[in-house]
Design a protein that fits this description.
Layout: H1 4-10, H2 28-38, H3 41-48, H4 64-87, H5 101-111, H6 116-134, H7 142-159, H8 163-178
Helix pairs in contact: 1-2, 2-3, 2-7, 4-5, 4-6, 5-6, 6-7
């Protein structure tokens, strides 16, 4: 039996910013633990399997909201891969083409940015806006709980980005490619 009212009441609100010093009110692990206690076995299984990286082949999840999210995210990743291959003058073999204009425009904007950090921040904000756009209206539904979990996972991912660490890693990789190990 599902107790979604109890579950949703325990999920604290949070805002997503690029400020890596701001602490999130809970972790993905704790979120999934709450889901296992208050959702049905099937809904809890779906919540435990939430991911920011949808499978390449479209699969049904049992949730119309998640199916829509995974389709958009899959199309975004395919569009990014195609544009990056085009930039590097490589052939994008075995990649299905996407015809979602909104996703293609977001991918073009991201690949046109000078800074990889700026591109990632833009993509994360695009993903958050997309989740807001397709979020279910019933906040006490399983789909709303899944939406919360995806937003939490995106927020955690955003918190991992650090400009100085990213720049140091970039220089290390760049030097290794050029054979200038220090």
């Amino acid at each position: 039996m599902e107790h979604l009212y109890y579950l949703v009441a325990q999920l604290p609100s949070f805002s997503v910013t690029d400020d890596s010093s701001a602490k999130l009110p809970l972790t993905t692990e704790y979120y999934k633990d709450l889901c296992s206690r208050f959702m049905s076995a099937e809904s809890s299984r779906i919540a435990a399997g939430l991911t920011l990286e949808p499978p390449l082949e479209q699969e049904t999840t049992g949730s119309a909201f998640l199916d829509a999210w995974y389709t958009k995210e899959r199309n975004l990743r395919l569009a990014l891969a195609q544009l990056r291959a085009l930039k590097m003058k490589k052939e994008a073999k075995n990649l299905p083409l996407t015809s979602d204009g909104e996703v293609i425009q977001a991918a073009r904007t991201a690949t046109g940015m000078d800074s990889p950090l700026s591109a990632e921040q833009f993509l994360n904000q695009y993903r958050m806006a997309l989740l807001d756009k397709i979020a279910p209206l019933d906040i006490f539904s399983a789909d709303a709980v899944y939406c919360y979990g995806l937003k939490l996972m995106l927020a955690e991912r955003m918190k991992k980005f650090n400009r100085d660490e990213g720049l140091a890693s970039y220089h290390k990789i760049y030097d290794e490619i050029l054979g200038e190990k220090k």
